[in-house]
Amino acid sequence: MNKAEVRKQGFDPANVKRISIIAVFIALSAVGSLIKIPSPVGTIGLDSAPGYFVALAFSGPQGAAVIAAGHLLTSAIVGFPLTIPIHLFIAAQMALWALTFRWINNKFGIIAAVVAAAVLNGVVSSFTMVLIGGIGAVIGVMPFLVVGSAINAVIAAAGCKLIKGSKLI
Q1: Structural domains counted in the chain
Q2: What Gene3D superfamilies would the database entry show (predicted)?
Q3: d(C-alpha 141, C-alpha 164), whole Å
């Protein structure tokens, strides 16, 4: 069977490769979700680094899928402390931040992208807590979220820099 016949039957090797990459990085997000950054909510971990990495190394939409799944895994491990609807909203925010991370990297460079990720996920996303506990909850979680966001973005940026030019990506 040639490539055209294979694709005609719905099997595209490029899609299999893409799905495999996403699955591997979602698994890495699950591992990262077990490495917690102490915080009042318990859902801040190293689950976002793989999503940010995929956004840089492969594509924004793939990174968005990985980072959203990573957040949901982290939240599930600690029992969705902010409720499932709020965690779904946060996962959607995280997907948007991964897309933005890639866009800012392409337009302004990696340092600007890391700063933007820390501000967007650390500061802007903190305001989701207003739904749970008011402005006090926002202020209480913000420093932890900024630190966690920065660490995740730096890990992704460093990882991408280290393997850029290799045949791995």
Answers
A1: 1
A2: 1.10.1760.20
A3: 34
**Cβ-based neighbours of 140, under 8 Å, separated by 6 or more:** 40, 129, 133
What are the angstrom distances between the C-alpha of 153 and each of 14, 15, 115, 136? 27, 27, 8, 26
Which of 15-19, 37-41, 88-92 shows the lowest per-residue confidence on average (mean pLDDT)? 37-41
* Domain range enclosing 89: 3-163
Count of CA atoms in the C-beta half-sphere (13 A) of 24: 8
- Rounded to 5°, the CA angle 25-26-31 comes to 90
Q: 109: alpha, beta or left, given left = phi > 0 and alpha = psi -120 to 50?
A: left
Each residue's pLDDT tens digit, 68-110: 998 898 888 888 988 899 999 999 999 999 999 999 999 999 9
Residue 6 has pLDDT above 60, yes or no: no
Residues shown for the chain:
169
Note whether residue 13 is domain-resident.
yes
- 82 close to 41: Cβ distance less than 8 angstroms: yes
**Angle formed by the axes of helices 130-163 and 49-57, nearest 10°:** 50
The CATH number covering residue 49 comes to: 1.10.1760.20
